[in-house]
Design brief:
alpha/beta
């Protein structure tokens, strides 16, 4: 980490190989793709409870992070990262799965409620505000009543795979657009 980043992109998920390909880890999956795209190596930083990488893109220094805490404790890692880099919550973009959106649909927002997402709730609690940008990626909502936990912790279906692959790539582009051109520009281009 040579330069202080201007912008921090955090992809939420659960640590451990058993969660890697689950719907709940789509945020982490996007950060992994971005790390590849920007040639940023993600290294474990114990005091931040995260894997962190850094790259320059269009004159903006961008930090990428995957919290190594479980989803409902994501706020600890995000708070540690914001403090470490001395960033405002507005210089943060949290990428997260969303059960209320159709598979592959993207929704960028400057802030607001957690929408029932435990990771987003914990971040708001730890950093003391709901005013931080987030990019939600739809994972669909085709699950039986009471099966929500099993659904989010299972892999995407064969039918969902092409949609989600495309969504991961678009989400990465949306995150880079937010970092370099601002959230409004990214919202105008990628929401819908």
């Amino acid at each position: 980490m040579s330069h202080t980043p201007d912008f921090l992109i955090v992809g939420l998920g659960n640590p451990g190989p058993e969660y890697t390909d689950t719907r709940h880890n789509v945020g982490m999956q996007v950060v992994a793709l971005l790390a590849e795209r920007l040639d940023a190596s993600l290294q474990k930083v114990t005091e931040a409870s995260a894997r962190i990488g850094q790259a320059r893109h269009k004159d903006v220094e961008i930090a990428l992070a995957q919290p190594l805490t479980y989803m409902n404790r994501s706020g600890h890692a995000v708070k540690a990262l914001i403090d470490r880099f001395a960033l405002t919550p507005q210089a943060l973009l949290v990428i997260v799965d969303d059960l209320h959106l159709d598979t592959g649909q993207l929704r960028l927002r400057p802030g607001g409620s957690s929408g029932g997402h435990n990771g987003v709730s914990d971040i708001a609690r730890q950093i003391g505000t709901t005013d931080f940008p987030r990019l939600r990626i739809g994972i669909g909502k085709k699950y039986a009543r009471g099966e929500q936990a099993n659904y989010v912790l299972s892999p995407f279906s064969a039918q969902q795979q092409p949609l989600i692959e495309e969504a991961r790539i678009r989400a990465g582009s949306a995150a880079l657009c937010a970092a370099t051109k601002g959230l409004d520009a990214a919202m105008n281009r990628y929401n819908g």
